[in-house]
Each structure stands twice: as structure tokens, then as C-alpha cells.
Amino acid sequence: MVGSRAVPAQAFVDALREQIAEEFAASQQYVAAAVHYDAETLPRLAAFFYRQAVEERNHAMMMIQYLLDSGVEPAVPGVAAPQTSFGDIVAPVQLALEQERRVSDQVTRLAGIARQENDYASEQFMSWFIKEQVEEIASMNDLLTVVRRAHDDPLRVEEWLSREQPADVTEPPGAPEVAGGAL
Asked: How far apart are the first and last CA of the chain?
């Protein structure tokens, strides 16, 4: 214990620090996808990915806040450059779905490490992310279906997004606190 705070297991801390890098990298990849769609004058697709970028950044910041709250020094990592060129309207969404599936595996692994280390607070912390990943994969899978169908008519995707995606997305109730507040 540090003061009155339970310190997470070191194996979990190490893995969470790695995950923070993954979340920041995902945010950057979503910015790159958004910029691609912006350059193609597809504003709704761009806005969708800009929102996703903020969401991934906030996930990293939630993890940082958890470490801060636990009395553990978080690491703010650098990340590799994202992919910035795409062959068609489908490629960024396909990449995003693959990324979400990978992140899902990673957060499940983190929960498993916490459980293995009898770090119940960290396991509980990860449960929100596991639930979030189910929603993220479903959303990206739906978008991939739509962009594949509308491959030759991207404005159909824009129309679908205007009907199906809310303009302002916030983290759902019960989300962990974001370091620095939800900026």
C-alpha cells in the first residue's frame, strides 16, 4: 500500500504502460484515417474518425489516471507513425476493425494478468474496457459493411453516418476518469 491506495501488481502496471502506448497509437491511426477522408471531401467519415481518435486518446488518459490514482508513475510513450495512405474508401475502416480486434485481445490479456496476480481492483478497472471493445468492434464492423456496399458511391456512407451516428459522442456513464478531465 502507498498511503491508503492499493498498488497494482507490477506485471499489470508494466502491461498497462504498454497498453497506454497502444491507445495513443490507435488515436494517431484514427487521426490519419480522418485526414484521409477529409482530403477526399467525406466530412462525415472524417468526423467519425476524428471522434474515434479522441476516444482512444481518452482511453489512454483513463489508464494514466488509474496509475496516478494508484500511486504509480505512468509513462507517456512515443508511438510509431500511423499508416497515412489508403487505396480506397474501405481500407481505413478495415484497418480500424483489425485495430479494434487487436485492442480487444490486449485489454482481455490485461484483465487476465490482473486476475492472475490477484489484483482485483485492476481487473475491475479493465472490465469497462472489455465492454467498450465489444461496442467498438460492433460499430466498426457495421461501418465496414456499409463502406463495402457503397464502395463505388461514398456519399451513401455519408448519408448512412448522418442517420446512424450521433454528432456528439461522449463516454458512456460509468467510464473511468480521464487524466486532465475530458478535454
From this structure: 31
